[in-house]
Amino acid sequence: MNWTCEMITPRKTAEDAVRRGGTQGMRSDVTATDPRICEVTGLGVHATSYADAVARITAWARTDQGRYVCAANVHMAMEAHDDPEFRQLVEAASLVTPDGMPLVWMMRRLGHPHQSRVYGPTLMVETLAAAEKQGLKVGFYGGSPEELELLAAKLGREYPALKVGYRYSPPFRPLSAEEERDVIDDIGRSGLDILFVGLGCPKQERWMARHRHQLPMVALGVGAGFAFYAETVRQAPNIIQRAGLEWAFRLLAEPRRLWRRYLKHNPRFVVLAARQLWQQRS
Fold this sequence. Notes:
Elements lengths: L1 E2 L8 H8 L17 E4 L2 E4 L3 H12 L5 E6 L1 H9 L1 H8 L3 E4 L2 H9 L10 H15 L2 E6 L2 H14 L4 E6 L8 H13 L4 E5 L4 H9 L6 E4 L3 H6 L7 H5 L3 H8 L1 H27 L1
């Protein structure tokens, strides 16, 4: 492995607001600019597939423009519901994929009957394979040092021709302004086409939006994708994922870290989703 240190339909309303320097006061009407965006409990999500998402990402990676991609699950949808500024920030992404099965089920009921899951960690692997074939350079920001070491070793075995130009595990504390500036300079000098960001929601989405105009590449938020690929965290079996019970699997694996998130978000999502479906039916 080489280590060195448009079928595209932009979300115009949200992207233009970010380009002007902010999202405050922006209306959430991105569905009017792209018929493939479906509103789920107030958050616009693209009707897409792995093949379509990878094609978009790799095409954007050749344009030298700063873009970012979000993978939306119940956690993100409820963070967006609770924080309008965060919702607008997510909708300013060039692509928002349906990462969680509850969002997929909602989209099927809301006019996209053939929608399938486009899961962030799997999208990362699919994009890595395409990047190797197309000679695109990738980088990794987030995760622990151990995860990045294991990830690098596995990449070397599975994608020996992949160009990896950057990897960095930031400390858990907030970076100082000088440290953040140094990180952005390092990423910019690395000549990346695609940057995978594994900081978890909502931190990674805020980070990608904040630095979009400083980084001429596609940033893809993958949540726990680094840990899953490095196998430091066990991934739910496919049958559990398809049943929409991955949250329960992860809760059993990490109860002290995740119980508050699921207790706060999951019941409210069910209520909001049921209300939306009832209003549509009415």
